[in-house]
Amino acid sequence: MNKRILIVDDEETIRLSLKEGLTDMGYGVATAGNGVAALEEIKSFKPQVVFLDMRLAKENGLALIPRIKEIDKEVEVVIMTAYGDIQTAVKAIKEGAYDYINKPFDLEEIDIIIERVIKNLKLQKKIYLLEKEKKSQNEYMLGEDASMKDILAKIDILSSNDAVTVLIRGETGTGKELVAAAIHEKSARKDGPMLKINCGAIPQQLIESELFGFEKNAFTGATARKKGLIEIADGGTVFLDEIGEISLSVQTKLLRFIEERTFKRVGGLEDIEVDIRVIAATNKNLEEAIKRKEFREDLYYRLNVVPIQLPPLRERGKDILLLADYYLQEYNKKFHKPIRGFSREVEHVLLNYPWRGNVRELKNVIERIVILKEGELIGVKDLPLEISNSIDDGSDIIPRDKHEKDAGTVLYPGFSLEKEVQEIELYYIKMALAHCNNNYSKASEILGISRFALKRKIEKYSLE
Predict the structure, then answer these.
(1) Last residue of a domain, which of 310, 329, 351?
(2) Please, which of 95, 185, 241, 453 could form a disulfide with 65 given CB 3.0 to 4.6 Å?
(3) How confident is the model at residue 251 (pLDDT cuts 50, 70, 90)?
(4) CA 111 – CA 115 distance, rounded (Å)
(5) pTM for the model
(6) 377 Cβ partners below 8 Å, 6+ apart?
């Protein structure tokens, strides 16, 4: 975050000495000798912190605080006074000041206050984004497939180059948002905000003002100035999901912003500069959209500096089982279930199902199974109908041909027929006992075996 400080004092020597000292410390500094000049500087210079003299020549500094907040409610005001007392401090805070400082003061004291204010501003941004997001951050990227290892390597490279624009492509549900979050969290911008904007979810007539903000009276209903999401994310990362959905007019403004890192609010005349990284994502074919004149070619090339292509889940091999097990454990904890895993038949089905909704679909399927499942092992009959029907439509649980590739899916290294049979037997015995409330006679009848045989199997599997 570029730290901008405004000094408002009617004594020129104080203004100049503070400006020189704070500039040497690396701050951007502007000054004003009266209230009118101060309000103009707040509009144009856009400081994060205002050091305001309590007694200007013809004005009461405290009376300026509401007018400052009307222009920019996020700016913090620190009152400077030579008449410091408890009553002064209480009055200043009531008027909206962040803190106050007694004259005379030294630069170190000013520097400490500025750092505290900036930290508070960053915290406020994070709280705002957390409230806006309202989404679990417990997920993380998983994958051992070669394609995912390549993507993880790209994430590391892009994280160390935090000014490079990134375009993430892939089908719906492949984890584009997770990749963007991983790039941000590993970069130097990790302490700044990451703002996620779904360009397809915002009405096109509102998206420009949502992204870039607007000035008071810019249009009907604009009763006050509002900062856009891009401005709020200053110092961090903006993730533009479904970038292919924005209108050509907004594309033009976005292109200018990416090239110059400046923009104007809707209805505004002043250029606003922010330091953010842009990561975009889409599941659309942008090349085809360009041919149809629906997407600007120049914007495409500005976004496509470093592309990342996410593979669909069906092409990630054993990652399907890795992710299924991860979500199983997560939902076991959430719903207090003791499910220990999937049968070999289910694993085969999961590996061969097309997963058109990709990781998102897999996650939802596992959640549904865990909610409804009673028992420790997930079998084929526990699968949702859409997956069971796909088996009936020709995706056999166990391959009927003798090709090595298909057999290898089931006959993995260390495969044991005896163990597989025991697992299936145990599964159905537990199901029958649960169904009959542990009545051995009824359970044995359902299973088609004698009560004595059932008793021996219960002893064998230590179910008593």
Answers:
(1) 310
(2) 95
(3) very high
(4) 6
(5) 0.59
(6) 339, 340, 341, 342, 343, 423, 426, 427
